[in-house]
Design goal:
disordered N terminus, alpha/beta, PyrdxlP-dep_Trfase_major, 17 helices, 7-stranded mixed β-sheet, pyridoxal phosphate, Aspartate Aminotransferase, domain 1, Aspartate Aminotransferase, domain 2, binds pyridoxal-5'-phosphate, 423 residues
Length: 423
């Protein structure tokens, strides 16, 4: 006779790694939120893992780095101090660890976890929207938003041709939403304008047409700001034509801190906004989608359909809240902007040029005319103990004075010919 418990025990014995996880009991137990049931689940789980059930150890022991490490990964500065490849490398802080230790551990698919729902309400109120839903990543936030808003094809969305949604989200708008994507190059070379949108929008309901149903903007984009005034112009016209406005606001925090406008002011221009906790704010995981109640209800459904329904999300939500409170509201980002500006100015003082202006936490060096190519620049930075990916330098809030000094040395070497070994 089929017995889920026996199947589980056999499967478990057949796997050679031993991981104690209270989740495993859920194969056998109906859901019950009380702590009493949780306690009994735990006891049962531990008996499943008693020695008699664990038949074999792995033949070749596989080291567990988190129990064998000689250092504490939560001490600071962490490895991000010299890592300028992106702000996604920011290391979670000890206060985030404390928050994880104190969070609630209930099931979020059942919407029963207080740490998670309070984060959702907190961010929704900061953004001036009625509701919010936690998602795993910025990509998931954008793609769930697009899938939730769009109904049935034919439908198209307008995006900046440099946007993350079109370039770095694995074609999700096509595969998940069947959307035709119209990419637009900003005519002013900096950001999309209402005129750009009007030129490319499809309002027709002629059978040959693929009508525009969404305009998706991004702020910041390549570290540069989409001005609030332009958002308002685009929003008024676009929504006036019944078209949905979504913002990829992975780094909207940065624009707000740079003084471009209030978070609520920006969010007002959009039906939905995706905000990331694990870029410049430094949380380990997570993003959030804010919007109307009905949107968020449906977004939970879409999130579930792509495997984004999560269980004990308190461990994600707790550090995310610390990230918003300490890094965004607590002023952590401003100092990084000052450092970025200082480094950008230093590069210019040596005769360097930028690919994009320094407006937030990114410094885009132009290597054209320096005689140093991207690979040489990366190697030069490595020789000084810095990690870079190319000309884009992300000066996140965990970059240290020491790293700043090393980067100036790299810049000096680019212009003195040392990068080529000429001196
Ligand atoms: C502007 C922007 N949006 C969305 C994302 C996607 O975020 P994630 O890597 O969490 O999927 C990124 C990632 O860096 C991004 O830069």
């Amino acid at each position: 006779m089929f017995s889920p418990r026996l199947v589980f025990q056999r499967t478990f014995r057949e796997t050679q790694s031993v991981q104690v996880s209270s989740k495993i009991t859920r194969f056998n137990q109906p859901y019950c939120p009380t702590s009493a049931r949780r306690a009994s689940n735990h006891t049962r789980t531990m008996s499943i893992y008693s020695k008699s059930n664990v038949s074999t150890a792995p033949e070749t022991p596989v080291e567990n780095p988190s129990t064998s490490a000689s250092h504490n990964a939560w001490s600071s500065p962490g490895p991000s101090a010299i890592d300028l490849r992106s702000d996604v490398v920011t290391t979670p802080t000890p206060s985030m660890l404390t928050a994880i230790g104190n969070c609630s551990l209930f099931d979020d698919v059942f919407q029963e976890d207080p740490t998670t729902s309070s984060l959702e309400s907190f961010v929704a109120s900061l953004a001036g929207k009625p509701a919010a839903v936690l998602v795993l990543s910025g990509t998931m936030g954008n793609q769930v938003a697009i899938r939730t808003h769009l109904q049935a094809p034919p439908h198209s969305i307008i995006v900046d041709d440099r946007s993350h949604i079109i370039r770095y989200e694995a074609g999700g708008a096509a595969s998940l939403s069947g959307a035709m994507v119209t990419t637009v190059k900003p005519s002013n070379g900096r950001h999309l304008t209402l005129e750009d949108v009007k030129e490319h929008v499809v309002l027709s309901d002629d059978v040959h047409a693929c009508p525009t149903k969404m305009v998706c903007l991004e702020n910041t984009l390549n570290g540069t700001i989409l001005p609030l005034e332009e958002c308002r112009r685009i929003s008024e016209w676009v929504r006036g034509h019944g078209i949905i406005m979504h913002l990829d606001g992975a780094r909207l925090w940065e624009a707000v801190v740079a003084g471009a406008g209030e978070l609520k002011g920006y969010c007002e221009c959009f039906d939905t906004v995706s905000l990331c906790f694990s870029k410049g704010l430094g949380a380990p995981i997570g993003s959030i989608l804010v919007g109307q109640e009905a949107f968020v209800k449906r977004a939970r459904w879409v999130r579930k359909s792509i495997g984004g329904g999560m269980r004990q999300t308190g461990i994600i939500a707790a550090p995310a809240r610390v990230a918003v409170e300490e890094t965004f509201l607590g002023g952590g980002l401003q100092a990084a902007h000052v450092r970025a500006k200082k480094l950008g100015d230093y590069w210019e003082s040596l005769g360097g040029k930028h690919e994009f202006p320094v407006e937030t936490n990114m410094v885009w060096l132009s290597l054209k005319g320096t005689g140093v190519d991207t690979d040489e620049f990366i190697k030069l930075a490595e020789s000084k103990g810095l990690r870079v990916m190319g000309e884009r330098l992300v000066i996140h809030y965990q970059v240290t004075d020491e790293a700043e000094g090393k980067l100036k040395e790299v810049m000096n070497d680019v212009f003195s010919g040392k990068a080529k070994g000429e001196n």
